Amino acid sequence: MIINIMDYVSEDDIKNTILEAVTSKVRNMQDKHLEIIYTNACYSAVTKVTDEIIEERGLEFSVENKVRELIENLSAFTVFYHDKFAPHENSKAYNLTQRIVEEEKDLLRETIKQLITKAYSEAKADMDIADLMSEYVRELFTVEGEA
After folding, report:
1. How many whole angstroms separate alpha carbon 45 and alpha carbon 27?
2. Cα separation of 51 and 94, whole Å?
3. Which of 29, 72, 90, 141 is the S-S candidate for 94 at Cβ 3.0 to 4.6 Å?
4. 8 A C-beta contact, residue 76 and residue 112
């Protein structure tokens, strides 16, 4: 036997029951959970407005310039920094940024190579200086005939 719930309750009754359940759940949540919900709702609203403004004002060019500027001014921190992504659909600005970064990957690759080479050569120079100083101190305090 198949029972159809719609034979017993209206669509409005179902909506009201779900709304009451969600309201009850939210009221019983701890403040931390409410803050997360509130924060996500705010991010969602801001993302929507940002997308509309970028589209409205044609700010794609500004975003492209900012991405290039960030790539050209990379530091060792920014190269190895990993951002955590929120579990929602990407904004248009994020997708645009990803597309531009993909287009500029040769510049990005070259910049990263230069940063790694510079960091390696600085570390090697520091080690060479430390070795020379160690050798000098050893010679300074070595008594003739001892080794």
Report:
1. 22
2. 10
3. 90
4. no
Mean pLDDT of the chain, nearest integer: 78
Report the pLDDT value the prediction gives residue 86, as an integer from 0 to 100: 57
pTM given for the model: 0.33
Whether residue 110 is predicted with pLDDT greater than 50 in this model: the reply is yes
CA distance 92 to 77: 26
Q: DSSP code of 89? A: P
Do 76 and 119 meet the contact criterion of CB atoms below 8 Å apart?
Answer: yes
Please give the pLDDT value at position 81.
Answer: 52
- What stretch of H or E contains 143? none
Name the DSSP letter for residue 87.
S
Angle 36-12-7 from CA coordinates, rounded to 5°: 125
Do residues 13 and 19 make contact, with C-beta atoms less than 8 angstroms apart? no
Tell me which H or E stretch contains 115: helix 105-141
